[in-house]
Amino acid sequence: MKNNNITAIVFTFNEERRIGFVLDNLIGYCNIMVIDGGSTDNTEKVCNKHAVIFLRRPECSPNDEMRLDTLKWAYDQVPTDYVIHVYCSHFYPAKLLEAFEKLTKEKNLDAIYHDLVVLRYGRIVHRPIIKRTSSACVFYKKSIINFAKSKIHDELAIQYNPNTMIRLKAEDDLSLHVFQDEDYLSTEKKHLGYARTEASQMLRAGHRKIGRYDLFLGPLLKFLYMYLRSGAFMNGVPGLIYSIALFQYNLSKNIFLWEMQNSMERPEIIKANNALRSRLITKSKRVTI
What we know:
Elements: E1 3-12, H1 19-26, E2 30-36, H2 43-49, E3 53-56, H3 68-76, E4 82-87, E5 90-91, H4 94-103, E6 111-114, E7 116-120, E8 123-126, E9 136-141, E10 165-167, E11 176-179, H5 184-204, H6 212-229, H7 236-261, H8 266-288
Parallel strand pairs: 1-2, 1-4, 2-3, 6-10, 7-11
Antiparallel strand pairs: 4-9, 5-11, 6-9, 7-8
Helix pairs in contact: 5-7, 6-7
């Protein structure tokens, strides 16, 4: 039976290929509201065929790197107390949806923490085998969101409170499944954008100076830790590629942060190189005279 106190907010941009899977997963379970970022494919037609609410989000401010104004606008459209924050890479097992519904009947609970597994190349590449804990959260009361404190990878600043939130067992049937339909090129393009955003946030937070050892050693240690902890080492080359992509993300983030801390983004680089060119040209003329 449909739970009319839950709304799945599905964020889309040219998702004609994947939106059908998401709708088939959630239709009949809860209300569905698609928030679209200006798709030019048949995303809207697929949504209309499934008779779900389809809204075009307003334009983001150029300075809104986290699209927080858009997210707040989206949540303001939701008529229900409970929200599932959905992307078209998501799949929700029936057992996990049952846990979400059960929470709505508990007066003093606000959110559920669950585990996630990552699938890529048609197989699981991330399923923690060391310290597997439920630390992802996409289902909660919209009233507990703190947009002002939101950061990359924690978009809506949901902070765990053991008195009002619960952690499910970290097992596959209770885990969000994230399908990464990416090849290496598309992965790196996305990672560069996210890495630069995270570096900007770290700079504003006063992160300590990045040195030559921090630049590479930190990402390398994280790679080794995640390669083992995530169980990626058990999944052959796909697991290794997944882990390498995370390593490159962390390396890119550190490089961006170093450039920002040392005022060496592209305009400053051009200025510094032009000054060096001028000095070299002047020196060369003195030698040839």
